[in-house]
Amino acid sequence: MSGGMSVQRSPEYRQAALAALRWCAWYTRGLDERVAAARQDEIASDLHEQASWAVDHGWTSRELARSIRSRQLRGAPADLRWRLTQARVANRRSRLELRLGAFVLAAVLTSGAALVGLASFAVFRMLQAGGQVAALAQTWSVTVLAAMAITAVCLVFARRTRVAGALLLLVPALSIPVLSGSMLWYVSATMQALAQMTPWWTITATAAGVALSVLYLSAAAYWWLNRSPAPKPVEVRHV
Amino acid sequence: MPRRRPGVLLPLELKILDAGTELQASEGSFYGFGVAREIADSDQAALIGHGTLYKALNRMAAAGLLEAEWEDAATAEHENRPRRRLYRVTAEGAQALASQARAVPASAPRLGLA
After folding, report:
1. What per-residue string of b and e applies to A121-132 under the rule 16 or more CB within 10 Å gives b?
2. What's residue B103's pLDDT?
3. How do residues A3-47 score in pLDDT, each as one tens digit?
4. What was the pLDDT predicted at A36?
5. A interface test, pick of B10, B23, B50, B83 with most A CB neighbours within 10 Å
6. Is the pLDDT of residue B70 over 70?
7. Where are the domains of chain A?
8. How does the average pLDDT of chain A come out, rounded?
9. Is A84 on the interface with B (CB under 8 A)?
10. Is B82 in contact with A78 (Cβ distance < 8 A)?
């Protein structure tokens, strides 16, 4: 099969195949990586199959190159239309992702700020009331937890530290609602009335903490999975 | 490009379904160049342009007329060639082909698509 090998190794075929691959790399640029790679792989396979077929049918390297160029040229309008469709689909998807990302960020920041607010209010009321020896340990704990929540919210603001921030919020989320409620019971008549009316408030506060923890864990997972990878240049594969 | 009615197949799509069904019957599945070659042989015409062919295959797979999967990399490596994207005509594709064939006069060669 030396004749065949010479067709597949001929400069005419190589140039035509390379031109087809370059064209493919050009019209798939900037598209979803998987979509672009799939199209490039399919064209590379097509070129190889056509070359093998041309060898079996006794085509010359010029005939093969001419056929490849002709197929590339005739298919170019369809390539461009396909690119437009893919870009439109990607735009729709990225808009949806942006909206979801904004919602997750807003939910984490708002609830984080609410935790800081609740803890600060409880500590402030405790200090205002001159402090209670019975709740001293809780006051310290809530102060530390509030500081932790403030740090976590600051971390969530920055894209790079967002995952760490969401994970750090887990501890304040699980503790602040119950501890702050217990602290306020000492100094707030409203809280005492609430505790009497709703004896299950601790369960509610714990459930709220668990719900917030689920939110933060989900947000951390979402941000971890959606980390933006380093951009990869499109390679022209040689046949 | 004018919008076509839903359920109506383009001539190229019918050719792909027709040629693909034949290839599938003998080889179990088919790939892009294989179907291009089969259509060129039956039409006595030039091979379909890359863009036209793969855009149509892509669209048909999205519409559920074909199912596509990448060939096992080891198989391709063993045969020293790039791996193929293998297609199969789905039940929906076969049904679309059959209903279109019924609509075309029997005297028309190859589904009247020449």
Report:
1. bbbebbeeeeee
2. 74
3. 555 888 899 999 999 999 999 999 998 888 889 999 999 999 999
4. 92
5. B50
6. yes
7. 2-94, 95-225
8. 86
9. no
10. no
Q: Using CA atoms, how far apart are residues A16 and A171, in angstroms rounded to an integer?
A: 62
**A45 in contact with B, Cβ within 8 Å:** yes
Nearest to A75 among B51, B70, B84 (CB): B51
C-beta separation of A184 from A122 below 8 A: yes
% of residues, chain A, pLDDT over 70: 91
* Helix axis angle, A170-187 to A136-157, nearest 10°: 140
Residue B3 lies in a domain: no
For residue A145, the Cα-to-chain-centroid distance in whole angstroms is: 28
Domain encompassing residue B33? 11-105
pLDDT at residue A239, as a whole number: 43
CATH code where residue B81 lies:
1.10.10.10
CB < 8 Å to A42, chain B: 32, 54, 85
Domains: count for chain B: 1
Whether A49 and B83 lie within 8 Å, measured CB to CB: no
Could you report the per-residue pLDDT of A158-189, keeping only the tens digit for each? 888 999 999 999 999 999 998 888 888 888 88
Does pTM top 0.80 for this prediction?
A: no
CB pairs under 8 A between A and B: 87
Query: Which ipTM score applies to this complex?
Result: 0.86
Tokens 């029997």 -> residue: B106
Structure tokens at B8: 């109506």
Residue B49 forms part of a structural domain: yes
**Is B83 in contact with A45 (Cβ distance < 8 A)?**
yes
* C-alpha distance from A49 to closest chain B C-alpha (Å): 7
